[in-house]
Every structure is written in C-alpha cells, then in structure tokens.
Amino acid sequence: MNPYSFFVNVVLLIGILPMTGCQSLSLLSSPIQKRGVSGFFKDTVLHAKIIKALSGKYSGSITLLIQKGRVMLVGYVKTENDRQNVLTVLGTFADIRHLADHLIIGSGSDSVINDTYLSQSLQSHLFFDTRISSQNYHITASHKILYILGTARSESEKKNVLGHAESMSVRRVISDITIDPTFDTESTQSHQAIQ
C-alpha cells in the first residue's frame, strides 16, 4: 500500500468511526494491543468496511468486537430477516476468520447506563489484575450480558478473566477467548488488531 492510500484510509477511518455507533468505546480508549501495527490496521480497515457495507442501517444497535479477523456481533436487530441480512453481508468478507453471532431479535437494552458501567468496570478489574494482559481483551455489555473477545496467554489467565466477569451482577457471561502463549510477546510491528 502506497503512503497516499494509507493516509486516505486513515482519514476515512477517523471520519467513520465516531459516527457509526457500532463500536464499543474501548476501541478508542484501550491501550495499543501487542499485535503489531499491521494487524491493528487490517482489523481497523475490516471494521470500516463492515460499517460501510451495512450502510449505517444498524448504527447504534450493533457492536462489533474484532481481534485479528475474529468478529463478535453483539446487539439487537428488529427481525430475523435483519439478522440474516447482517450475516449475509459479513459472509462476503474473506478477512473474517471466525464469526460469533450474538445478535438478539428485539429492542435495545433498557439499561444502557448499567451496561456501560458493567463493561467499563470489568475492563478496570482486568487492568489492575497483574495476572492478566488486559489489552488483549475486548469487552461490551448488552441487556446485562457481558461479552468478551480476546486472547489469553494461558488457561489460568482465561480462568482469571472469566472469574472477574462472573463475579459481577450480570445475567450471563459470553466469551470467545482463545489461548496463545506467544500472543503477549509478539512484535508490535507485526500483528496489532482492533476491537
């Protein structure tokens, strides 16, 4: 990719992301993850492409959590037909290595403030737990259900993450956590992803 194309894509992302409503706040506030600039950029571009492909139709109702081509869909759509439309659109992206569909048919959460508090509270718990590499996890909440997408360095770390989540006042914890002992030590110039 030439420098001009890179610049145009970055400007496009900066313009699109704040307007989408389809990305958890942790995308913009979390520390840079140890996956390298290349991976981070690829997932950021994937996120922007998905938002564009959905044409803003589901803005504010769907949250995308993305990590190295793994995508978790969280939120709600009005009908099963809407859900199938979203899945069809995402099915056209070769960059998506794994898709976890957690869309709910119905209306938005009636406890948005509580959901925001839950997701930020869990992120804080992980940040202050020295046994956990908190930047490797993407978290959102909807309808008092916690959703976690991430990569643990060990089974023990995964258990610690889930332990924090399950100790909170939530209806359920849904996680998609893979284990990769080398994930935390990857070069920041090789693979960095997005949420």
Summary keywords:
6 helices; three-stranded mixed sheet; single chain; Histidine-containing Protein, Chain: A; disordered C terminus; disordered N terminus; 23% strand; alpha/beta; 195 residues
Question: How would you characterize the overall build of this protein?
Answer:
- With 195 residues, the chain is an alpha/beta fold.
- It has a domain of 74 residues: Histidine-containing Protein, Chain: A (2-Layer Sandwich).
- It is 41% helix and 23% strand.
- The protein is built from 6 helices and 6 strands, in the order H-H-H-E-E-H-E-H-E-E-H-E.
- The strands form 2 sheets. A 3-stranded mixed sheet has the order 1-2-3.
- Helix 1 packs across helix 3.
- The chain is globular and about 40 Å long.
- The chain starts with a helix and ends in a 16-residue tail after the last strand.
- The N terminus and C terminus are likely disordered.
How do you describe this structure in short?
The protein has 195 residues and is α/β, with parallel strands linked by helices.
Largest sheet: 3 strands, mixed
Percentage of residues in strands:
15-25%
Overall mean pLDDT stands at 78
Order of SSEs, N→C?
Answer: HHHEEHEHEEHE
Number of helices: 6
Main-sheet strand order equals 1-2-3
Query: What percent of the residues sit in helical stretches (DSSP H or I)?
Result: 40-55%
Given this structure, which CATH class of the domain at 112-185 is correct? Alpha Beta
Assign the structural class, choosing from mainly alpha, mainly beta, alpha/beta, alpha+beta, or little secondary structure. alpha/beta
- Provide the gyration radius in Å: 16 Å
- Overall shape: globular
CATH arch. level architecture of the domain at 112-185:
2-Layer Sandwich
